[in-house]
Design brief:
This protein is an alpha/beta fold. The chain has helices spanning 3-16, 35-47, 62-69, 102-120, 137-140, 187-203, 223-237, 247-250, 253-262; strands spanning 21-30, 51-55, 74-78, 124-128, 150-151, 167-168, 176-177, 183-184, 212-216, 242-244. The protein has one domain: Glycoside hydrolase/deacetylase (TIM Barrel), CATH 3.20.20. The protein is built from nine helices and ten strands. Strand 1, helix 2 and strand 2 form a beta-alpha-beta unit. Residues 257-263 have low confidence and may be disordered.
């Protein structure tokens, strides 16, 4: 039995329960337009599937702004500030870990948010994506004060609202083996991880309302990885129970804006 068949069967289980299988797509480390990003955007446009581009504020340039403008399916999230490692020797890489003062981290996030809002306007969704998916817990509570309403890291979330005014929606499936040559893990293992998270949601072993997140890195992708993503979104779009959410839906940003205005 192929892994694609297993995915189809899991989606059929969702349909039999009368539930929507929600997914979302996050792509990290965007700074400029390039052939790899163009290929990723082509998949999103051809399949009409939304993609959230985690852009690095300090180094993103005008070519990225233009590329996003030509892809209606793209929304921009904030990928830290400069994607700079501030961890101490021997510690795992992190830009917004507890090794720096909260004030310094707050200032960088505020500058980054202001730059992305200026560059991308309404295409920017105020969601913090920490580089290396690591951050100090003290950062979360201060996100709303600088205009960030969402948080996205990796693996199943422990809380949908880790702080007042913050919605967390993580990614769960990364098809790159970062510690084994930075290569594509293959379609079968990648699909297996998608099926595992969907099944955990369906059975209540994971947060049933957290959409299953695909995490890509266009700069690390080869032909096989791009081919897998293209086939994944094509096959899932054909299934009647699947909905690919854009970032504003996934992070309930429109609801948050409405609540703030009525407060």
């Amino acid at each position: 039995m192929t892994s694609w068949v297993l995915l189809a069967r899991e989606l059929d289980e969702w349909q039999a329960c009368g539930r929507r299988a929600t997914l979302w797509w996050r792509d990290d480390d965007a700074v400029r337009d390039c052939d790899a990003l163009a290929r990723l955007f082509a998949i999103a446009r051809e399949q009409r599937v939304p993609v959230a581009i985690a852009a690095i504020p300090a180094t993103c340039d005008a070519s990225l702004v233009s590329a996003v403008g030509l892809c209606p399916e793209a929304t921009v999230l904030q990928h830290g500030y400069a994607h700079a490692n501030h961890a101490q020797a021997g510690e795992r890489s992190a830009e917004f870990g507890i090794g720096r003062s909260l004030g310094a981290r707050r200032d960088e996030l505020a500058r980054g948010r202001a730059r992305l809002a200026e560059c991308f306007g309404q295409r920017f969704a105020p969601v913090f994506v920490p580089p290396w998916n690591r951050y100090g817990a003290d950062v979360v509570a201060m996100l709303p004060a600088i205009g960030l309403a969402g948080l996205s890291a990796f693996d199943a979330r422990s809380s949908a609202r880790p702080a007042p005014g913050v919605v967390q929606v993580n990614a769960h499936v990364d098809p790159i083996a970062w510690r084994r040559g930075r290569t594509f893990i293959g379609a079968e293992p990648a699909i297996g991880r998608i099926v595992a998270h969907l099944r955990a949601r369906r059975t209540g072993e994971a947060d049933t309302l957290e959409p299953t997140g695909l995490l890509t890195h266009h700069l690390a992708f080869d032909d096989a990885a791009f081919g897998f993503v293209a086939e994944l979104v094509a096959r899932t779009r054909e299934h009647p129970t699947v909905t690919w959410l854009d970032a504003r839906q996934a992070f309930e940003l429109d609801d948050a804006i409405t609540s703030a205005r009525s407060a």
